[in-house]
Amino acid sequence: MSITRRQFAMAGAAMTPWLATSHAADYPSKPVRIIVPYAAGGSTDVFARQLGQELSARMGQSIIVENRTGGATAPAVSALTQAQPDGHTLAIFESVTVAVNQFLYRKPLYDPGLLQPTAKLYESGLGLVVAPDFPAATVKEFVSRAQEKPGLAFGSAGTGTTLHLLMAGFLERAGVRNMIHVPYRGGLPAVQDLMAGQIAAVMVDLPTVVQLVQTGKVRLLAVTASSRVKQFPDAPTFIEAGYPGFSGGTWFAAYVPPGTPPSVTQQLSLHLKGALESPRIIAWLNEVAMSPAYLPPAEAKAESQVLVKKYEKTIKQLNIPLQ
């Protein structure tokens, strides 16, 4: 059953000013839960746990990270929207996934309007990785190999993620139309299958593969940034690899249940801002190729709305079939 705003209309209407004020005055009053829609051990999961340490110190409450994977983030959305709207539950989503789910399914899995952003958190670059023994050392060689051998598979963190859409866009640009997309419950499971020889390539967020690239367990052919990434100085951009104008990235935001009082949302947003500004978090983000990118609720929502327009057009151009 899809989730709609109508389910929350009566609850929202029943909200009274004194209740919202009471929530703000008492917040936080119990442990805070962070829902992660991706696999344990992946970059978003690790980020949530690092962030949780800082939030716990700032808020004086325990932080519990809960993984709700699969279903194109629908299980995580369901858990978030069914939680009490009191600021003690938030979820971290890749914002592109939230924006485009409505354009990928004949019957949308949920109404993205239910998801109330409380802060933009961080940005992440992407890269094309293959196994060390894959017979291609450059992007051009990868394209030639894919054209010569129909049916090679590429993995992504899931249907409708930036990883999926950018890879699909690149293959279209390169004239490769015979690769098979295999969606996973996060970038890490896709990379694990890559190393096991089950798929040929993955377009993945760079934080997931920092150590794997550095230890030679996977090979990074190119990055989607407009300039080289300092953690991978030997990896060219796609622009340098012969694809002018091809670049992109992804960003993640924290969302709260619909009906959360604005005063509580703002308090949580400020706690998140403070956590992202801590020297320990800044150093860790730099180490794993993430960039802090805090925006408050209204600005995060506006940026999300830009994504909706951008990727609705992209999905139509790529002729991605409805699920």
Report on this structure:
This protein is α/β, with parallel strands linked by helices and 323 residues long. It folds into two domains: 188 residues, Bordetella uptake gene, domain 1 (D-Maltodextrin-Binding Protein, domain 2, 3-Layer(aba) Sandwich), CATH 3.40.190; 98 residues, Periplasmic binding protein-like II (D-Maltodextrin-Binding Protein, domain 2, 3-Layer(aba) Sandwich). Helix content is 42%, strand content 19%. It contains twelve helices and eleven strands. The strands form two sheets. Strands 2-1-3-10-4-11 form a six-stranded mixed β-sheet, sandwiched between helices. The chain has a five-stranded mixed β-sheet with strand order 7-6-8-5-9. α2 packs parallel to α10, α3 crosses α10 and α5 packs across α12. It is globular and about 65 Å long. About 5% of the residues have low confidence.
Total domain modules: 2
- Ends distance: 15 Å
Low-confidence segments, given as residue ranges, are: 6-20
The sequence of SSEs as H and E is HHEHEHEHEEHEHEHEHEEHHEH
The name of the CATH superfamily of the largest domain reads Bordetella uptake gene, domain 1
Number of helices: 12
* Structural class estimated from helices and strands: alpha/beta
* Range of strand content: 15-25%
Based on DSSP secondary structure assignment, what is the total number of beta strands? Answer: 11
Named CATH topology of the largest domain:
D-Maltodextrin-Binding Protein, domain 2
- Strand order within the widest beta sheet: 2-1-3-10-4-11
